[in-house]
Amino acid sequence: MTQQLRVYVPPHPLIQHWLGVARDVATPSVLFRSAITELGRWLTYEAAREWLPTQETTVQTPLTTCVATFINPQIPVAVVPILRAGLGLLEGAQGVLPLASIYHFGLARNEETLEPTCYLNKLPEKFAPETRVLITEPMLATGGSIMAVMDELTQRGVDPALIRIISVVVAPPALKKLAAVYPGLIVYTATIDETLDDRGYIVPGLGDAGDRIFGT
Ligand code: URA
């Protein structure tokens, strides 16, 4: 079977609600931050399906023994927020994955080349086999940043099939780049928008996610 990039847009009223709040230009920074936190929570919840490893065991209830399914603690789970804006989704993601290790990765746009330049890389040299990695990045626009992070992760031994990306708004240029190199990859997002403007902003989008999260 040929693999294809899969992009899930969960039809969930809470995800739709918080996306609407985030899109509204009248939303103040404090509420925008809450909206992104909530989107981080619900998109992580959705992304955890068929991704978080489980194991079966037996527990004793007050009445008898029965089979129970738990998250397998032997298999590492990591979250990689792409700074700055990815920090906005982190709090909600951590609420769902409280035992995950957090590896920060900071990228800033070089204003001359317009390419993302790494200013912080807390990734381990090598990830343990089977590690599940969740990348948090609210906007997948041109795809420059996400491709840079995917490259770093796969070089460090992460299997792209075990990576999930959560994003609030994604656009076709980023999806095309990801699909060309990582056909087995799975993305969870609140929406797929149509286009980018000539500055690389997603339209209709929600503006500069980092500025709106941090009130700058
Ligand atoms: N990054 C943002 O914050 N907003 C966009 O629209 C595109 C990239």
TrEMBL record:
Boundaries of every Phosphoribosyltransferase domain copy: 9-216
Pfam families, alphabetized: UPRTase (PF14681)
Pathway connected to this protein: Pyrimidine metabolism; UMP biosynthesis via salvage pathway; UMP from uracil: step 1/1
Top EC group: transferase
GO molecular function annotation: GTP binding; uracil phosphoribosyltransferase activity
The protein's Enzyme Commission number: 2.4.2.9
Keyword Glycosyltransferase: yes
Enzymatic reactions: UMP + diphosphate = 5-phospho-alpha-D-ribose 1-diphosphate + uracil
Domain of life: Bacteria
InterPro entries named in the record: PRTase-like, PRTase_dom, UPRT, UPRTase/APRTase
GO cellular component, one term: cytoplasm
Cofactor needs: Mg(2+)
Assigned keywords, A-Z: Allosteric enzyme, Glycosyltransferase, GTP-binding, Nucleotide-binding, Transferase
Glycosyltransferase among keywords: yes
One BP term from GO: uracil salvage
Function: Catalyzes the conversion of uracil and 5-phospho-alpha-D-ribose 1-diphosphate (PRPP) to UMP and diphosphate.
UniProt family annotation: Belongs to the UPRTase family.
Identification of the protein by name: Uracil phosphoribosyltransferase
Organism in which the protein naturally occurs: Dolichospermum compactum NIES-806
